[in-house]
Amino acid sequence: MKRLSLVSLAVLPLFAVALRPAVGAEVRHEIPFPDLPSYQTLKCDLHEHTVFSDGLVWPPVRVAEAWRQGLDVIAISDHIEYQPHKEDVPTNHERSHELARDSARAHGLLLVKAAEITRDTPPGHFNALFLNDIKPLDTPEFLDVIKRANDQGAFVFWNHQGWQGEEKGRWLDVHTTMFQNKWFQGMEVCNGDEYYPNAHKWCLEKNLTMLGNTDIHDPDLRQKSTSQDHRTMTLAFVKEKTLPGLKEALLAGRTVVWWKDQLIGRKEWLEPLFHRCIQVAPPHLRSDKAIWVQIRNACNADIRLERSGNLGPAKLDLPAGTTSLVQIGVGKSSGPLELKYTAKNVLTAPATGLPVTLRIPAR
Ligand SMILES: [Zn+2]
Ligand SMILES: [Zn+2]
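YS: structure for the whole thing
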């Protein structure tokens, strides 16, 4: 009897492991943005809250919901100066990261240790990423906090620049001081449902990194990310999928923001992303007057094109993850063709679409 129970005890965990994935396994829906020629594309949300500040979610839940929706990286950035739940959840700046860490490891999701420096506007709110120790940032003088974050090697960005306050949308002396000291390196061009054209412009002028995040406080109930319904997120183009790899990409400004139905960023990164997404096949049919080609949009964002040259349809809407059949009137030409378009929802500057050339190979 004793022996039998030993055997069954030894076998039981094996059965448990074998059976577990079949029931209630977590499922992830990938976000198929392609990698760039020399870089891997990471989908990141670098501004999130939990019950440890004014969020309504326990930290590991943030990991599971992001993984399920196809994200690769999150930063939990609870407010240092604002904890409305502190009667129930004591102030502990390290704790949300500690609690989420094991879940992040189990899901293979990168978790950035972060905090939101939360002062009135001006100067506004700033996120500090890649912190070692959050506690020293709990100090009265704003510029001391920013300096201490930088002394830890943090990547600091200005959050929701156009959000509120009489100085909303304005670049002031305090921002110049921080910029001249290289104490912040990026800005949120998009936060949740908002896009800030001024932030987009300043990032271009001052060589700051562009970010798009949710600043999420509630649970996110989405099961997957689609072109019609997804988080605001940052695509970061990394040499390696590690925290140092992400930091290197952010410092180098290799990002694109996916916000609603727009891709927003710097031409340098939007252009290769576009050409990885949009694939033009050689013509599969020719007549005396036209050719027929298939154009595939391999990424997760719809792309809207308007003709800027004189060849091809006036408009081309290429839905995410589909192939479009396109007829082009060309006479008897059988050589390669170049179709000039503007990608209206791929913004290289405020209200400025990316100019693109679709090259149709000869048959
Ligand atoms: Zn904020
Ligand atoms: Zn926030």
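YS: worth flagging: The two ends are 77 Å apart (CA to CA).
IM: good catch. Also The longest helix spans residues 2-19.
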